[in-house]
C-alpha cells in the first residue's frame, strides 16, 4: 500500500522508460479545478470515455477509464509497437491484436461486479464498435452492436453509445431506419457536449432529415463541435460561411479560419476548399503555389475534386510548371473516382497531347491486346476531321484507338488516356 501512494506522488517524467516501456507520453496543463474522477494516466482530466468530444480510452483487462488525451497517446504508442504503455492500474500491457481486445472485452463483461456503471457502458460501447466493424469477429454483426449500444445508452446514459446507436438508426443498420430516432439520440448526447453528436445532428438539420431544415441550427451545432476541435464540423462550418446560405451571412474570414483549422488536421475537403480560396484570391490574397500545395495534399488523400483542380493547375501552368502529361494522369485518377468534369477535361487535353504526325506506342489495350507494343503515327482523315486515329506501321488501314492507353514515343512520357 505504501508503495502505491508513493507512486502517485512522484509521477514519472514524460518519456521516462521503465523496463522498456514509456510510462508517460504528454505533460498535462494544471487543472483549474480537480476532476471528479481523475484519469490515472495524467491525474488532471476526467477518466471518462468521452471527454470534451474526444473519445476516451479503457483498459480492456481491468476496465479502468482514461481521458481522451491519454488514450490518444496510448494509441500512438501502440502504432509504434515497441513502446506499449501498461495500464497504470492493473499493469496489463495494451492488447496487440483485435482478437486480444475482443476476448478481453468479453471477459470484462462476464464479470461486471467490480466495475462501475460508466466502465460497464464504456466496455459495451467498445465491444459494440468491434461487432459493428467486424474487428475481432469473423464478420460485422450489426444486430449485436445495436443491442450493446442500446444497453449502454439506456443504463449508462452514455453519449458515445447514444451517438453510435443514433448513427445505426440513421443508416438502418441492426435497427429500423429512422431519422427522427437518430435525431432524438443525437440530441441526448448533444446535451452532454459530445462533439460527434453535435456534428451528426448538425448534418440532419442541414438536410432537414428527421428534424426541421435549418442552416442556422446546423451552424450552431457545427460551431459547438468545431470549437472542440472536430475537423468534420470545422470543414462544414467553412462551407456554410463561404456560401452564406439560409439566413447565414457570407463571412470569408470565418470560412478561411475554419478551413485552416480543419486543413491543419489533414481533412481533405477543407484542404481542397482552402486551396480554392487561395486559387481564386477569395477572402485571402491569391496564392497559386499555396493552392497547388493544398490541392496536392487533398489529392493524395483521394479527394476527387482536389485532383481535378490540381489537374487544371498543371494544364494551365498556374502555380506549377505547365505539364499536360501530368495533368492527364491526374484527370484520369479524378475520372476513375467518378468526378464528372474530369472526362471533358481529358478530351480537351487530347489535341494538346497528340498532334497529327506524333509517333506513339500502344500500351495496355485490353480489347485488342495483339496491338500492344506496336508503333504508329497519329493520323486524321478528311472524312472525320478532329477525330484522331493511329496509323500503325505496316497496317493498310488506320486503327482507331479510343479510351485506352497509348504511350508517346518520347523518353519517359507516359500518357494514360486518349479519347
Ligand atoms: Zn489522462
Ligand atoms: Zn488495467
Kindly describe this structure.
With 419 residues, the protein is an alpha+beta fold. Among the domains are: 88 residues, Serine Threonine Protein Phosphatase 5, Tetratricopeptide repeat (Alpha Horseshoe), CATH 1.25.40; 55 residues, Roll (SH3 type barrels), CATH 2.30.30. Helix content is 49%, strand content 7%. The protein has 16 helices and ten strands. Strands 9-8-7-10 form a four-stranded antiparallel sheet, with no helix packed on it. β1 and β2 form a beta hairpin. The N terminus and C terminus are likely disordered. The site of one zinc ion (ZN) has 8 residues, from loops.
- H/E topology pattern: HEEEEEEHHHHHHHHHHHHHHHEEEE
Beta-strand content bin: 5-15%
**Mean pLDDT value:** 84
Under CATH at level 1, the class of the domain at 266-353 stands as: Mainly Alpha
Rounded to the nearest angstrom, the distance between the terminal CA atoms is: 78 Å
What's the CATH H-level superfamily name of the domain at 266-353? Tetratricopeptide repeat domain
Low-confidence parts lasting 5 or more residues at pLDDT below 50? 1-9, 410-419
Which fold name fills CATH's third level, the topology of the domain at 266-353?
Serine Threonine Protein Phosphatase 5, Tetratricopeptide repeat
Count the beta strands.
10
Bound molecules: zinc ion
Radius of gyration, CA atoms, in whole angstroms: 28 Å
- What CATH architecture label of the domain at 266-353 applies? Alpha Horseshoe
* Helical percentage: 40-55%
